[in-house]
Amino acid sequence: MYVTIAPSSVGGRVRAPPSKSYTHRAILAAGYGEGAFVRDPLRSADTRATARAVEAYGGSVAEREEGFEVEGFSGEPAVPDDVIDCANSGTTMRLVTATAALADGTTVLTGDGSLRSRPQGPLLDAIEELGGEAASTRGNGRAPLVVTGPIAGGGVSIPGDVSSQYITALLMAGAVTERGIEIDLETELKSAPYVEITRELLAAFGVETTETGGGFAVAGGQRYDPPEGEYSVPGDFSSISYLLAAGAVAAAETVEIEGAHESAQGDRAIVDIVSGMGAPVEWNRAEGTLSVSAADLSGIEVSVADTPDLLPTIAALGAVADGETRITDAEHVRYKETDRVSAMAAELGKMGVETTEEPDALTVHGDRSTLEGAAVDGRGDHRIVMALAVAALAADGETTIAGSEHVDVSFPGFFGTWADLGVDLEERE
User: Fold this and answer.
1) What is the pLDDT of residue 373?
2) Other residues' Cβ atoms within 10 Å of the Cβ of residue 162
3) Ranges of each domain in the chain
4) What pLDDT shows up at residue 190?
5) Which helix (H) or strand (E) holds 419?
6) Is 265 annotated as a binding residue?
């Protein structure tokens, strides 16, 4: 599908969607236990992939009006009857690959073309180190994957600079092993807030984890059992980033965002980033609301070591800002649904934006650019599509984005929300 966006002024009150990161973890955590009600989840293609995996391991997930009713497999996943298709969800694949290592038999996991290009090798190596069998069918550390268990736990070393999801997967699975799992990080941990999201959610389910001198540990024999048998998913700051950015570049009147409650999400850094570029932002933490108004933005330098999902949003803001916006510590951002560093450089380039791409950085030269409407490609990546939609608000002329349907991965109804803010847009097949 395609969406065409005309330069627009925005304003009004909208609600942020629930967190994708928390929803994935909550569904799987409920699956590891006897079950739980996951209230206010994100209902998206990615989170439904995790729900299907829980069902493949012997649980069940029923969608209700207020959330997901999950019946778990009580720490003993069954060997799936069929291949687990994780579709486009990298989070699903990494988290449930560790689940496969608990099953007494062999599990096969795969996904779409994009997911089959993403690295899984360090997690496979970790499962082997823990006594399981784990291999890539193509011998390149990428899906399809074949995993045979069960593992009993133990110590494992793993790099911390490829994906924090490896650590999350091992902590979640380790809680129901006999011996628990102690993780030694071989390199500095990137995207550290995502591990804190995991630890925060595990604590809510009654599972204790510890930070060691060189990594993390989880004791075995624990039970997943949230108070009152339910867990409520907070709002998503990755999605909030596009709403804040829209207000910062195009608000004729204040944009107010509901659902912005404090949590361990690293992407809450977008509040300080937008403010640091010059837009007036107010965050009422007690009520969970954000307010933002438009302003003349100035370029900044910002590291995305812990916030890789923010790079597309920051790049779009940089295209509007005066001066240079330099985004550093970005090498791991290349291993998402697409290479988001190159994708933003190329697609913003079609809009007349000058950028400089380095292996681990992207500089957007707002002062040397003329932001113009153009035909651009979302690269099959929800975050690229939404970031380009931000840039389109301030462009001179209409912008048409191919692949607009991919926003459903993390922000179903995104363009409806965009329209509620007053954006002039048209969707078509």
Assistant:
1) 98
2) 19
3) 2-17+235-428, 20-232
4) 85
5) helix 414-420
6) no
